[in-house]
Amino acid sequence: MADLGTTNTFLGIMAVVxxxxxxxxIGFGVGAFIAYRRIMAVVxDxxxxxxxxxxxxxxxxxxxxxxxxxxxxxxxxxxxHAIAGTMDRVDVTAERMKHTVREQVAxxxxxxxxxxxxxASMVSGNGGHRARPAAADPxxxxxxx
Length: 145
Description:
mainly alpha
């Protein structure tokens, strides 16, 4: 049979190596945990120093933009309402002007037609009367009137 001393020596070496491997694994775990804590501290610091103020500023800007947008929308609605009202008033005024001008033109046209008729009657020389056919004179040719 083989010498058990050599086997025990190899088993001892393997046990020491296993313990060393366990210690290395634990060391890596502790190192990773420490690195994680440091990285998280840096992230928290960055968040506290940069991200929180930036988020606050962005939220303030967004609130301002929302307020400005609401005001602009309100003003746009007011302008739209004002334009619609103005267009309605312009339509009513145009209709009134059309009727007023039509009445004035009718008056002037009547006056012009009257003047033209008067001028035409003066030019024709009969005082505006149509010439009547001559009636038979009962005394014609008798010499007595």
